[in-house]
From TrEMBL:
The organism of origin for this protein: Stephania yunnanensis
Catalytic activity from the UniProt record: sn-glycerol 3-phosphate + NAD(+) = dihydroxyacetone phosphate + NADH + H(+)
Entries under InterPro entries matching the protein: 6-PGluconate_DH-like_C_sf, 6PGD_dom2, G3P_DH_NAD-dep, G3P_DH_NAD-dep_C, G3P_DH_NAD-dep_euk, G3P_DH_NAD-dep_N, NAD(P)-bd_dom_sf
Annotated active site: K219
Residues the entry annotates as binding NAD(+): G23, S24, G25, N26, W27, G28, F54, F111, A167, R283, K312, Q314
Name of the protein: Glycerol-3-phosphate dehydrogenase [NAD(+)]
Superkingdom of origin: Eukaryota
Residues that, per the record, bind substrate: K134, R283, N284
Family: Belongs to the NAD-dependent glycerol-3-phosphate dehydrogenase family.
One term under GO cellular component: cytosol
Enzyme class: oxidoreductase
Length: 374
């Protein structure tokens, strides 16, 4: 559907949807801006978009929330971009979600379990959720995707939105695409598509929550590998090879975890396009390059604090989580790139190991298209 002709498809019920964005980092702020511009145009949504802010005191002594509400700008995580007057920052998590029936979750993944636990019993029972979060939790019983965590803890349905979406570029309204993954209800997916779509942000639905979410999660591990290659001054051929091997590991890992994952998902914006943009320009690539240039002698934590000014890296923790899944199942040799990235990040291997180890071609025919080893 053309975003300029987007209809809200809600005339039969006349129910107005109220949106809250949980999270206000770089992508969270851009998501609030996108959504806020659409709720003003689409009659089935309330104009106001609430945005929960993890409160911080700025160097000026002011509260971040007060500055956002006064200047319409998240001066810490998205400086120079106006969010729109209908985006209202709220430091009180429970208050921010209490009236909403559309909840957009967009925080670094490591904070999500705590946030969900604080929200148990506090969200509307008819609420629908969408997760823009890249990452997963590893529990004793196995990996848990963030959309499942939200559904299980809050008892609500959860879609996902992922894609080649470097937030600062979308903030400047440069053309890009994204993918909404949904489980069952096409009309819910289309409501999310309408809420996010603009002339410069084209969103397509696919019925494959886990495939879309795993693409968004795993590509951050491949981006670390691409950053090591850049830091070692290897060329474009090497980087392309790393991306290809990474994409293959993403696909095999996803299909082993969830037999429902579809091959076509890897050709959507959430798949190959997100992998390319993250390996060319994202923050995981950038910090991994610095790590390799320093010969692995400065830790990721130190580099993250120095280079990202409060923004969070997802790739290092995701690499650890993926490694836990692989080692529990004895799959390390089937996933040499994922395994090597983790071992480099914890200092067990030098950054140069990224090409030494990736040259082994595992026999994926053992596992391809099958979930029975999981
Ligand atoms: N930035 C991008 O370009 C981009 C694009 C697509 C997806 N994503 C994904 O979106 C998610 C959110 O990333 P982002 O870029 O909006 O955030 P960010 O890394 O820019 O900012 C970090 C956020 O975490 C908050 N925070 C810090 N400590 C916290 C705590 N203890 N509890 C709760 N919140 C805390 C900060 O206030 C800030 O809002 C991540 O999963 C990321 O992978 C980011």
């Amino acid at each position: 559907m053309s975003p300029t002709t987007a209809v809200d498809g809600n005339s039969s019920t006349n129910k107005k949807f109220k949106v809250t964005v949980v999270g206000s980092g770089n992508w969270g702020s851009v998501a609030a801006k996108l959504i806020g511009s659409n709720t003003l145009k689409l009659s089935s949504f309330h104009d106001e978009v609430r945005m929960w802010v993890f409160e911080e005191t700025l160097p000026s002594g002011e509260k971040l929330t007060d500055v956002i509400n006064r200047d319409n700008e998240n001066v810490k995580y998205l400086p120079g971009i106006k969010l729109g007057r209908n985006v209202v920052a709220d430091p009180d998590l429970v208050n921010a979600v209490k009236d909403a029936n559309m909840l957009v979750f967009v925080t670094p993944h490591q904070f999500m379990e705590g946030i969900c636990r604080r929200l148990v019993g506090k969200v509307r029972s008819d609420a629908e959720a969408i997760s823009l979060i890249k990452g997963m939790e590893v529990k004793m019983e196995g990996p848990c995707m963030i959309s499942s965590l939200i559904s299980e803890l809050l008892g609500i349905n959860c879609c996902v939105l992922m894609g080649a979406n470097i937030a600062n570029e979308i903030a400047k309204e440069m053309f890009s695409e994204a993918t909404v993954g949904y489980r069952e209800h096409r009309e819910v997916a289309e409501r999310w598509v309408n809420l996010f779509s603009t002339t410069y942000f084209i969103v397509s639905p696919v019925q494959d929550v886990e495939g879309v979410e795993l693409c968004g999660t795993l590509k951050n591990v491949v981006a670390l590998a691409a950053g090591f290659v850049d830091g070692l001054d290897m060329g474009n051929n090497t980087k392309a090879a790393i991306m290809r091997i990474g994409l293959r590991e993403m696909r095999v890992f996803s299909k082993l975890m969830f037999s429902s994952v579809k091959d076509n998902t890897f050709f959507e914006s959430c798949g190959v396009a997100d992998l390319i943009t993250t390996c060319l320009g994202g923050r995981n690539r950038k910090v991994a390059e610095a790590f390799a240039r320093n010969g692995g002698k400065r830790s990721f934590d130190e580099l993250e604090a120095e280079m990202l000014q409060g923004q969070k890296l997802q790739g290092v923790s995701t690499a650890k989580e993926v490694y836990e899944v692989l080692s529990k199942r004895g799959w390390q040799e089937l996933f040499p790139l994922f395994t090597t990235v983790h071992e480099i990040t914890i200092g067990h291997l030098p950054p140069s190991a990224i090409v030494e180890h990736s040259e082994h071609t595992p026999n994926f025919s053992l596992v391809e298209g099958s979930a029975q080893y999981y």
